[in-house]
Specification:
alpha+beta; 126 residues; two-stranded antiparallel ribbon
Length: 126
């Protein structure tokens, strides 16, 4: 098994018979390859190097944008999970007073989604 690059930029894993097409490569054992794959499955990142075999590293921390997008997904999921409340109230099967706490949390979620999306939009337009 080889860890190598064909274009000098993008790295990957190749079989020994592809050696001639690689600009740069390092031979790795099947066990080393499996250790890299196992580490990746456990959340590590495979990092390729010009001067040595690939290694496992901790992933970089999430960016502010990634954190904001994750929070938006969570809030939208909460809204989806509680949509039944609006339906029950609209159909007269429940009252707003019965679900006042949920309705307030839904309002807060919508407000937070709007704020996060506006912040993301502002950053995108810089």
């Amino acid at each position: 098994m080889l860890a190598g690059t064909k274009d000098g930029k993008s790295w990957g894993f190749y079989f020994d018979d592809q050696k001639e097409s690689l600009q740069k490569y390092f031979e790795i054992t099947r066990e080393e390859h499996m250790a890299l794959m196992d580490g990746q499955a456990e959340g590590k990142v495979i990092t390729f190097h010009d001067d040595k075999k690939p290694t496992l590293e901790d992933p970089p921390p999430p960016t502010e944008e990634e954190i904001a997008r994750q929070k938006i997904r969570e809030l939208k999921n909460y809204l989806s999970e509680t949509d039944y409340v609006a339906s029950k109230i609209a159909e007269g099967a429940a009252t707003a007073e019965e679900y006042s706490e949920v309705l307030e949390k839904r309002r807060e979620a919508r407000t937070e989604i709007n704020e996060l999306e506006e912040a993301l939009q502002a950053k995108a337009w810089g």
